[in-house]
Amino acid sequence: MYNFHKAIAFLLGIVGWCVTVPAQAQAREQEPAPPGRYIDGVISNVAGRIILYSDLAGRLEQARQGGETVTDAIACNELEDLLYQQLLLEQARIDSVIPDEAQISAELDRRISYFEQQIGGRDKLEKFYGKSVTEIKSDFHDQVADQLLSQQMQQTIVGNARVTPKEVEEFFKEIPTDSLPFINAGVEFARISIYARPTEEEDRRVKLKLEEYRDGIVKGEKDFCTVAILYSEDPGSAAQCGELGMVPLGVMVPEFDAVAMSLKDGEISPVFKTKYGYHIMEMIDRKGDQYNARHILLTPKASASDLQAAKNKLDSLMTQVRDGKLDFNVVATEYNQDEETKGTNGVVLEPNSNSAHWAIGDLDQRMFLVIDKLKQGQISEPIAFEDPDGKKGYRVLRLLKHTEPHRMDLVQDYPLVQQAAEAKLRQRSVDTWVKEKLLNTYVSIIPAYQGCKFEHPWVGASTQQP
User: Fold this and answer.
1) Using CB atoms within 10 A of its CB, is residue 215 exposed (0-12), middle (13-18) or buried (19+)?
2) Which residues of the chain have pLDDT under 70?
């Protein structure tokens, strides 16, 4: 079963509320804190960008949740990664690189959607955090922005690193046989989804109903708060009279932000549409690039006949694939309504590694039960599904590859070996870049961490004040 807590920590970077530092740091800096007491402070300064104990604590909590025993060496490795990220962000500032709000919004949506699927829906996710999805997105907006900026800067450093088949073979031969990694049983699979689409009549009915609510509110016949509580289909805000709380631009979908930026305080928008359905919005307060608004959401619903039509369409497409009249990859590209797999010929990528290889233990139970019955190349029957936001449809899975537990093999695991060889090439570029930047970048690390065995010369870097 997929470890949901591990995924949350890895992808959203939950900060653990207990500070863990190397043993020598505890001895030199302070006496152990009483149980339950939170202590924070500065560990390092990279060109004016500070790293706190709590930043490192979050990383170490990830390691613990991943089953690792936290040691001084792991703490030092995590600290060096934080130092590197701050150096990348400083370079982004120097180069005037600005985060793309549309990309940030899309990434927040992708991560929230993934976690909703893993935990079993939006309600459970909000209960896990004790916050609405909007508040969760707002909390992690800046963190995701920094992550994307760091990735963008790193990409400029490493470029388009590629290795030839000969270089891959040479890389593999350099690995001692007894050091070859053990590869767990795994699979590669593809997915094609068809959603049940509400009819135009249903779409028009929902829009007219929301226009009716809006007219009543504008005329003073209905109260916005009451309508939101009784009828809004946004579970995260309905109970709060539809109020979202102060959110920065980029947290909501672009269409929603655009309407918010067009409203004055107290003004109510016309009915407008996003991928979630139809909305009306009342602006409460706007300050610069942040705003607090109420909204009411109504979503067109697919009927049983709409769902059956989606199944019939997918069934027909797969029959043509099995009969050799259509290519699976063509269907996965041209007919697939699954945004996550439409651009990968249907291949489902493991989010942590961004590779097609999935360890068997990382599949959720329902996915495993379907894939476990398939032979390589075989396509499943259509399976009903429902997204966390309530959209329903049918999907099929195709088993592309199944591997038994084994030592890494050049032929069988060529894509993994190639990735490792390219990673080594990228690391060389990073090493060179960091050494050059540290010659003219102010870095300060508290004495307790100066004994870490870093890969790069952080200690003794430029002492010129930022």
Assistant:
1) exposed
2) 1-39, 389, 461-466
First-to-last C-alpha distance (Å) of the chain:
48
Residue appearing with tokens 């997929």:
2
pTM > 0.85: yes or no? no
pLDDT digits (tens, 9 = 90+) for 281-331: 999 999 888 899 999 999 999 999 999 999 999 999 999 999 999 999 999
Q: 200-298 domain in CATH 3.10.50.40?
A: yes
Report the distance separating Cα 182 and Cα 193, nearest Å.
34
Q: Quick one: 86 exposed, middle or buried, by C-beta within 10 A (0-12, 13-18, 19+)?
A: buried
Q: Tell me the CATH number for domain 185-197+303-404.
A: 3.10.50.40
Domain residue spans in the chain?
A: 4-96+416-449, 185-197+303-404, 200-298
Q: What is the pLDDT of residues 217-230, one digit of tens each?
A: 999 999 999 999 99
**Number of helices followed by number of strands (H, E) in the chain:** 15, 13
Q: What is the dihedral of CA 155, 159, 164, 167, to 10 degrees?
A: -80
Contact 328, 321 (CB under 8 A): yes
Instruction: Look at residue 406 and give its three-state secondary structure.
Output: strand
| Whole-angstrom distance, CA of residue 364 vs CA of residue 346 | 18
Q: How far apart are CA 317 and CA 326, in angstroms?
A: 8
